[in-house]
Amino acid sequence: MDNDIAKTLYSQNDIHEACVRLGEQLTTDYADKQPLVISVLSGAVFFTTDVVREMDVYADMDFIDVSSYNGGLESSGNIDLVTDLSTDVKGRDILIIEDIVDTGRTLKYIIELLYKRNAKSVKVCALMDKPTGRKIEVKADYVGFVVPDEFVVGYGLDYKGLYRNLPYVGVLKPEIYE
């Protein structure tokens, strides 16, 4: 897999340092709350487990799976709810953990869904933010890295289901997906 990567953007150490930094901030911000942490499947699983381990607060966890890429390079614009939450969000402080905020469509869909279900508050923690990809105005409250406009894989991010298990984030060589 390493041979398919043009360059490494964020090393294992870079990611660990971001998780520690974000975990400390989340510990402070949620000190008097018991948030429901919602991991967005499948890409955010690695990041979720690493950042939640750095949080020193009582927290519940759940998972949601939405899809807009369908294995391609760009969002289709249509959001499908693949797997719904098993937890009632009514009156809860919600922390969505996402791998990357790109077009904003998926994140907006999830936030609106949670507020429609009467969540008390909704905040977003993203490993990466790609503002150049934004189609809908939405923002993450906590961000590990601002990523350039390149096709990134690793540490949960995939291309056609592959590369998620790379321990770093790298730029995929164009000849792999062209």
From TrEMBL:
Stretch forming the signal peptide: none
GO CC, one annotated term: cytosol
Location of this chain's protein in the cell: Cytoplasm
GO biological process, one term: guanine salvage
Any GO molecular function: guanine phosphoribosyltransferase activity
Cross-referenced CDD domains: PRTases_typeI
Top-level taxon: Bacteria
Pathway entry: Purine metabolism; GMP biosynthesis via salvage pathway; GMP from guanine: step 1/1; Purine metabolism; IMP biosynthesis via salvage pathway; IMP from hypoxanthine: step 1/1
One of the Pfam families matching this protein, by short name: Pribosyltran
Family affiliation: Belongs to the purine/pyrimidine phosphoribosyltransferase family.
Record protein name field: Hypoxanthine phosphoribosyltransferase
Protein's organism: Pediococcus claussenii (strain ATCC BAA-344 / DSM 14800 / JCM 18046 / KCTC 3811 / LMG 21948 / P06)
Underlying gene: hpt
